[in-house]
Amino acid sequence: MAELMENEVVRAFSTYAVIVVVKMLLMGPMTGYYRFTRGSFSNEEDVARKSAEEKKKLLKTHPDVERVRRCHQNDLENIIPFVIVGLLYALTGPELSVALLHFRIFAGARIFHTIAYIGALPQPSRALSWVVGMLVTFSMAYRVLNTVLFL
């Protein structure tokens, strides 16, 4: 394992994978923050100690909460494949500069995607950032398949 971590591409991948995974993990507390500050809960047990009248007010959806929740879901759908494909890509021995370009573009696209989603920026800002992230993952997947295809 220590030998593997001496590989610059693997170290670069590890850096950017941790950045996007931590970003994804922060979306959970952000959702909680939005739920509490907007008074919007989705589960009965979240408001169990409230009166029946308060429960009716609090058991509702709120656009801000739903926006953060959907952003988190989108992270799960995109960051997990990036981490898996990116690790395999790093193991194929790509040039460091090309690998860094892939990793940096993906991380930037995901961070911008979150800003665009939470900030409700006009389209196509969010869609373009999503497409850029997906293209990076597909590019790395192509390299992996092109390098190790064994059918």
From TrEMBL:
GO cellular component, one term: mitochondrial outer membrane
Subcellular locations according to the entry: Endoplasmic reticulum membrane; Mitochondrion outer membrane
Mode of membrane association: Multi-pass membrane protein
EC id: 2.5.1.18
Catalytic reactions on record: RX + glutathione = an S-substituted glutathione + a halide anion + H(+)
Pfam families: MAPEG
Stored InterPro entries: MAPEG-like_dom_sf, Membr-assoc_MAPEG, MGST1-like
Keywords carried by this UniProt record: Acetylation, Endoplasmic reticulum, Membrane, Mitochondrion, Mitochondrion outer membrane, Transferase, Transmembrane, Transmembrane helix
Highest rank taxon of the organism: Eukaryota
A GO molecular-function descriptor: glutathione transferase activity
Transmembrane region(s): 12-34, 76-92, 127-145
Record text on subunit structure and interactions: Homotrimer; The trimer binds only one molecule of glutathione.
Entry function: Conjugation of reduced glutathione to a wide number of exogenous and endogenous hydrophobic electrophiles.
PANTHER family registered for this protein in UniProt: MICROSOMAL GLUTATHIONE S-TRANSFERASE 1 (PTHR10689:SF6)
Similarity comment: Belongs to the MAPEG family.
Protein name stated in the entry: Microsomal glutathione S-transferase 1
Organism annotation: Astatotilapia calliptera
